[in-house]
Transporter substrate-binding domain-containing protein
Amino acid sequence: MSVKLQKFVKAALLLTVLSVALAACGSKPAQDAGAANALEQIKKAGKIRVGLMGTYAPYNFLNDKHEVDGFDADVAKEVAKRLGVEAEFISGEFSGLIEGLQKDKYDALVSQVTITEDRKKMMDFSTPYVKNAVNVIVKSDNGTIQKIEDFKDKKIGVGLGTNDEKYLRDVAMPKVGKFEIATYNDVITSLKDLDVGRIDATINNVFALKPLIEKNQFKVKAVGEPIKEDFAGIAIRQNNPELLDAINKALAEMKSDGTFTEIFHKWFDVDPNF
């Protein structure tokens, strides 16, 4: 091959590489912008896919018509309405909700997802829409457990993957000494086990437990002062500012026009607690 031909081939190859590189650089921002704007995708679909447990009355549960109902459900439906779409509910065990959100199974989680610093590293949260006080729950005839300091050497039930489980492992156990932790995928099973003595205590918020205790006539009670207070928010995938802003705007409007107070009264018969 002549010198001139070699130079020509090299120049042609260089131009080809540059063209491909420039094309890739030029197309990437447009793709990223389309993928990032979840709000536009939701509006185009006409629905927002909402992940929740569906077994956590009065927050979210299946009613007698096998429809998703509850405080979380009403909040989600009202937010969806203000976004101009419908809420499509997809139920699943709490321990899998966050992973499902990250894998695009849901657009948002409205299932009493506690706002924590660790979770903020994985997803974005709306402004809080409820505050939950968590109490120690024991059998009605129990007189030995009144506070978390009494958990030592006992068997304590808690929801799998919840912030309450993390609290028991990271805060309570180092503070009070070793105890056994039994995890559950739903609240009703933990209360059944507590009622028959398979566990010594559990922790949960009283709003969630009251309807289950009344319906099933469990002989259990809350004791002592709340051990902690948590705030729950609507969780979405990170880096979707348009969707987060729209959700926060909807929540703010609901609080200012009285809609949120109506929903809170419907399910808890008290004024909003924050």
Confidence is low (pLDDT under 50) at residues 2-35. The longest strand covers residues 220-232.
